[in-house]
Write a structure and sequence with these properties.
With about 160 residues, this protein is of the alpha+beta class. It has five helices and seven strands; from the N terminus they run βαααβββαβαββ. It has one domain: Aminopeptidase (3-Layer(aba) Sandwich). Helices cover about 35% and strands about 30% of the residues. It has a seven-stranded mixed sheet, sandwiched between helices. This is GNAT superfamily N-acetyltransferase. InterPro entries: Acyl_CoA_acyltransferase, GNAT_dom.
Length: about 160
């Protein structure tokens, strides 16, 4: 797959239909790894929350033509300056899209003053946990009720 024609851009409120199609096209496993539950049809409030960019939240999309292939969001966290969440469509996983989204999101968060990063990952999401260990070897990981809470510095 050619990554050269994948654009990483900020989400816009008029991307509602794009994000809705993206979410319903994710496998049940991918939905669960990102949202900790499957969703047959995303609610309007979930769609809006994933697209909202304001002083507390940021959202980026990975787009190839008119196809959304990845979504990343950050929000001002409780245990860290910024909490992040990322999901990539099943057919594009393992191609570096998630890493590109994370790097861009963290660059934007760091520019806004964030120094610490937090994220919750399902304990069986080995691919993401391995990526975290590579990118942030100093990350603190705490396991609780099947999830791993990760805290580290924002710099990659």
């Amino acid at each position: 797959m050619d990554l050269g024609d994948v654009e990483i851009r900020p989400a816009r409120l008029n991307d509602e239909e794009l994000i809705r199609r993206f979410l319903t096209g994710l496998s049940a496993r991918t939905q669960t790894q990102r949202f900790f539950a499957g969703m047959s049809r995303p609610s309007a409030s979930v769609v809006r929350a994933l697209l909202t960019v304001d002083e507390q939240r940021d959202a980026l999309l990975a787009v190839r033509g008119d196809l959304l292939i990845g979504h990343a969001m950050s929000y001002r966290g409780e245990g860290a300056d910024v909490e992040i969440a990322v999901v990539v469509s099943d057919e594009w996983q393992g191609q570096g899209i998630g890493s590109r989204l994370v790097r861009r999101l963290l660059h934007r968060a760091s520019a806004g003053g964030a120094e610490t990063l937090g994220m919750d990952v399902l304990g069986d999401n080995r691919r993401v946990l391995a990526m975290i260990r590579r990118a942030w070897p100093e990350a603190i990981m705490r396991t609780s009720a099947g999830t791993v809470q990760v805290t580290t510095m924002t710099l990659l």
